[in-house]
Amino acid sequence: xxxxxxxxxxxxxxxxxxxxxxxxxxxxxxxxxxxxxxxxxxxxxxxxxxxxxxxxxxxxxxxxxxxxxxxxxxxxxxxxxxxxxxxxxxxxxxxxxxxxxxxxxxxxxxxxxxxxxxxxxxxxxxxxxxxxxxxxxxxxxxxxxxxxxxxxxxxxxxxxxxxxxxxxxxxxxxxxxxxxxxxxxxxxxxxxxxxxxxxxxxxxxxxxxxxxxxxxxxxxxxxxxxxxxxxxxxxxxxxxxxxxxxxxxxxxxxxxxxxxxxxxxxxxxxxxxxxxxxxxxxxxxxxxxxxxxxxxxxxxxxxxxxxxxxxxxxxxxxxxxxxxxxxxxxxxxxxxxxxxxxxxxxxxxxxxxxxxxxxxxxxxxxxxxxxxxxxxxxxxxxxxxxxxxxxxxxxx
Amino acid sequence: xxxxxxxxxxxxxxxxxxxxxxxxxxxxxxxxxxxxxxxxxxxxxxxxxxxxxxxxxxxxxxxxxxxxxxxxxxxxxxxxxxxxxxxxxxxxxxxxxxxxxxxxxxxxxxxxxxxxxxxxxxxxxxxxxxxxxxxxxxxxxxxxxxxxxxxxxxxxxxxxxxxxxxxxxxxxxxxxxxxxxxxxxxxxxxxxxxxxxxxxxx
Lengths: 396, 202
Known about the structure:
The structure holds 2 protein chains of 2 kinds. Chain A is α/β, with parallel strands linked by helices. Chain A has 2 domains: about 25-200 and about 305-390, Alpha/Beta hydrolase fold, catalytic domain (Rossmann fold, 3-Layer(aba) Sandwich); about 205-300, Rna Polymerase Sigma Factor, Chain: A (Orthogonal Bundle), CATH 1.10.1740. In chain A, about 35% of the residues lie in helices and about 15% in strands. Chain A is built from 10 helices and 12 strands. Chain A has helices at about 145-155, 170-180, 200-215, 230-245, 250-255, 275-290, 290-305, 335-345, 365-370, 370-390; strands at about 25-30, 40, 45, 50-55, 65-70, 95, 100-105, 110, 165-170, 190-195, 320-325, 350-355. In chain A, the strands form 3 sheets. Chain A has an 8-stranded mixed beta sheet with strand order 1-4-8-5-9-10-11-12, sandwiched between helices. Chain A has a two-stranded antiparallel sheet with strand order 2-3. Chain A has a two-stranded parallel sheet with strand order 6-7. In chain A, strand 2 and strand 3 form a beta hairpin. In chain A, helix 3 (about 200-215) packs antiparallel against helix 4. Chain A starts with about 25 loop residues before the first strand and ends with a helix. By secondary structure, chain B is an alpha/beta fold. Chain B has a single domain (about 1-120, about 155-200), classed as Vaccinia Virus protein VP39 (Rossmann fold, 3-Layer(aba) Sandwich). Helix content of chain B is about 30%, strand content about 25%. Chain B has helices spanning about 10-20, 35-40, 55-60, 100-110, 125-130, 155-165, 185-190; strands at about 1-5, 25-30, 45-50, 65-70, 85-90, 110-120, 170-175, 180, 190-200. The chains are: A alpha/beta, B alpha/beta. At the A-B interface, helix 8, strand 12 and helix 10 of A face helix 3 and strand 4 of B.
């Protein structure tokens, strides 16, 4: 399989800053084909493994401008640009593109779907080559470390020795941290946003409720639902719970207050309040695009993740720079968890910038609170990139 | 007397001159990072800032500096002993409650500590209080009694006694009056002072 290293853009781009990438395509990289396998943290193996990924911008000759962008729980490889004929841009389109903080005029940006996912990478909805049927719950448990291990294979395949940056929010931030822990020599900088070194009992508890919601739906059928249809009720409730945790009290007040959908109370169990309608809508939409088993596996991977107590910077010399960002109103991944990352970096005297951004959007802020992130990420990357070029001395 | 007239803030110039090239420098309360930028560029120093204000942090990051958001009093806790050659505490000592604790922490984290503060015993302040009977306002103490962030009102003499009492060795002291450094009667004539401290016996 050949990687296409240049983003294909057939539409003419308007000139000026902050342009859209235009049309992008997903690519697929398959490895660990028989007799090879990918060894997993659980002791099990997986193979063959396919990763769906997209790239934006051009890899320079020295291969020193590659940035790996990492997605959150329900994200995918489509981080920016548009698919032909579709109108929804990628999930971090505001941040990735020409003139944007992850400036594709300068950098080569890569985003891959995680293993365990359902957006083109190998996951529980993929066909198990042993049985010829979807894995379902036969799929081995994968961890954040396994996800990163698979991504490293992709980065090897793309011929990149050292990434200029690994960056992501929420579970994407966990992967960024895991990259530093697993492959410190292959990362020049990391931007973990709205994330944690480990889930607190509260975060595990919310995940457990979402899993129970899925598994309590009779349509789940112990994970073997690929012929009968997925547990839509359970999965949509799981997503509704998720959305509550992504918002803040204030952002919900501003967005919904106690506004009524029909202007009066119905005196039945329909959605009276706009917030109810919003959650139902989000839940119903989610089941169209996400696999329930993937939700189970990925939330478990997040709960297992633990780089606390010195495991982030674990002995090997780390000369990576860090930009750690949290949001004041994010109660799902509160700032004290980001501050714990910073404490670990200070302990190991790792170069770190940390800022808690004022935002009322809650955990969602990493996707929508753009102004502060734009400034910080743009200049942080620029400094990292220029520092690297100056450091090498022979590029200018 | 020496006149500093190169566009650089006089206190920054004095601190800059105290720092050996190639050092590791932490600026506690680094503001928009002007001093750190200067030290990083012209002293080839490895620098780190600590600052509370979000907009000031943006300015620092624009300058390519690394800054961790924190208040001054809790910003040092996790750094191992001797992480830096210099810890700078400029123009914020007077806003600190736990002064001794902070200076001891700074001398644990840094081999040397540079402290800059306004002099409360400056002649105009004395006149203001002694003759005018009003809380002093000077170029280095520009606030009114009801909007000042300062919680410690110290003179150069006070600080010298404090260092002697607490066992901080004063390696250098520079006294500023506007753009001039002065040497005679600093406690009366200087608007501000900058001290270079070390642990006694080092």
